[in-house]
Design goal:
Blueprint: E1 2-8, H1 11-27, E2 36-38, E3 45-53, H2 59-69, E4 75-85, E5 93-100, H3 102-120, E6 132-138, H4 144-156, E7 165-167, E8 170-176, E9 183-190
Antiparallel strand pairs: 1-3, 1-8, 2-6, 4-5, 4-7, 5-6, 8-9
């Protein structure tokens, strides 16, 4: 099963993300807009640790490790600017940055990474933690000039409202991949021990 750990986006963030998606489509040349696969707002989340494939029998140990890794927490978060991830010529994702108590969020992600690493015996996360809500993914065959155009359009969008939100729990989620888009199944909620 394909797993990740995340904070569920509140409904106000999903509404703001949906509005940003509409603005992004309108800002792009008509021939470029179809090359973006918009993420369904109902599935939006802030990924804390992507796990990938794990055997179903390992899930109980993983859940216990996640619970044991953190104390109850409250992390103040807001929405930031619309941005693209990666160098403009190779960008593959348009997202809304998550701001607020980023240091506390990064600490939480690091503790969860340790729990995942120890319970599943996988390598630690190597990528720099960059909290965001994914708005759209670009088609694989898009060339560098078109990717640059999408990145530039994303940066020009007006920032969404901040919409303060206090995160108090995270989820262990199973991802079911499908051609029409991923479907997510929450396996457990975690608030710390």
């Amino acid at each position: 099963m394909r797993l990740f750990v995340a904070i569920e986006a509140p409904s106000a963030w999903r509404d703001a993300a949906s509005d940003a998606q509409r603005q992004l489509r309108a800002a792009l040349p008509p021939e470029l807009a179809p090359s973006l696969r918009m993420v369904a707002p109902s599935t939006m989340h802030v990924t804390l640790r992507f796990i990938g494939e794990a055997g179903e029998t390992l899930v109980p140990a993983l859940q216990a490790a996640l619970d044991a890794s953190v104390e109850p927490f409250e992390i103040y978060l807001t929405l930031g600017r619309v941005t693209s991830l990666g160098p403009d010529a190779r960008v593959s994702v348009v997202a809304i940055a998550v701001e607020g108590e980023r240091y506390a969020l990064a600490e939480l992600a690091a503790r969860l990474d340790g729990a995942v690493t120890s319970s599943l015996g996988v390598a630690p996360e190597r990528r720099t933690f960059n909290p965001h809500l994914t708005l759209a993914r670009m088609a694989r065959g898009l060339d560098a000039p078109d990717r640059r155009a999408v990145a530039a359009a994303a940066r020009e969008l007006a920032p969404p409202p901040e919409l303060p939100f206090t995160a108090r729990q995270f989820l262990l989620v199973r991802s079911h991949l499908a051609p029409e888009g991923s479907r997510y199944e929450t396996l457990s909620h975690h608030r710390g021990r």
